[in-house]
Amino acid sequence: MQRIVVLTGAGISQESGLQTFRGEDGLWNHERISDICTPEGFARDPLRVDRFYNGLRAGLAHVHPNAAHKALARLEECSNAGTWDGELLIVTQNIDDLHERAGSRNIIHMHGELMRVRCTSCGATPPWHTDCLPQTPCPTCHRPTLRPDVVWFGEIPYHMDRIDRALRQCDLFVAIGTSGVVYPAAGFVQLAGTHADTMEFNMEPSAGNALFDQAILGPATKTVPLWVRDLLNG
Ligand code: APR
Predict the structure, then answer these.
(1) Which single residue of 3, 65, 192, 217 could bond 102 by disulfide (Cβ 3.0 to 4.6 Å)?
(2) How do residues 98-125 score in pLDDT, each as one tens digit?
(3) Which tens digit of pLDDT belongs to each residue from 135-160?
(4) What is the rounded end-to-end Cα distance, in angstroms, of the chain?
(5) Which residues approach ligand 1 with their CB closer than 6 A?
(6) Which residues participate in NAD(+) binding (predicted)?
């Protein structure tokens, strides 16, 4: 039985129409990370940060999972059905819900989720589908202390223990559509690479390219379904 951990980044959702963070038309070309994606930025101007994430959340209504998301969901489905002798865990840095909408269930959102908010008073993380503003009350404790349920720079990503265990036990580690500059995710290839095969799928060689055994370059909607087809054909 083959145990695969797939790490996904913004590149897997790019062909669904979502902007990546870096690169020519990346989100961080228009906004400063320190204004939006840090606890200090949120403390300075919560309205600005809420509006940024409200925009991204609203944008999800207009996009759909693509062939790469669907191929990974099919692999999990075949694992569950026993038609593929393997196990797949997706660890995503993405805060969109396209993996789930494609059908993936064994998934960890290490950087949080756009479709949830978090109450800094009571810790509730309710599902959230509309706009959230600084005065919006928490549905659980009713205090106006909600924030995006997103892991910002300087904060610890979610479920690191579970991710660490899966990386230590996997036979194959695959990174798809991630630039390999943001830690800890950028370090997963080194941890897995001590015992597992490693592959990256990207448009161009990522910052960590030299650490992977193999790189498949091209759009994820073309390369990932072919890889999954080959896996399923043994
Ligand atoms: N197919 C495959 N790869 C693609 C595609 C595509 N269609 N389009 C873009 N890419 C690649 C780019 O070449 C780039 O290497 O996807 C990568 C996207 O990189 P980033 O924009 O840096 O996104 P990511 O690696 O997910 O960012 C990591 O940074 O700001 C934080 O928290 C944010 O989770 C995010 C983290």
Answers:
(1) 65
(2) 999 999 999 999 999 999 999 999 999 9
(3) 999 999 999 999 999 999 999 999 99
(4) 12
(5) 9-11, 14-15, 20-23, 26, 37, 93, 111, 177-179, 182, 202-204, 206, 219-220
(6) 93-96, 177-179, 202-204, 220
List of domains in the chain: 1-17+65-111+157-233 (3.40.50.1220), 19-62+114-150 (3.30.1600.10)
Cα of 126 vs centre of ligand 1, distance in Å, is 27
Give binding residues as ranges.
93-96, 119, 122, 138, 141, 177-179, 202-204, 220
Phi then psi for residue 24, to 5 deg, are -50, -50
**How many C-beta atoms lie closer than 10 Å to residue 214's C-beta?**
10
Instruction: List, by residue number, the catalytic residues.
Output: 111
For the cut 90, the answer to whether the pLDDT of residue 30 exceeds it is: no
Angle formed by the axes of helices 67-81 and 220-232, to 10°?
20
Percent of the residues in the chain that have a pLDDT greater than 70, as a whole number: 100
Q: What does the alpha-carbon distance between residue 64 and residue 67 come to, in Å, rounded to a whole number?
A: 10
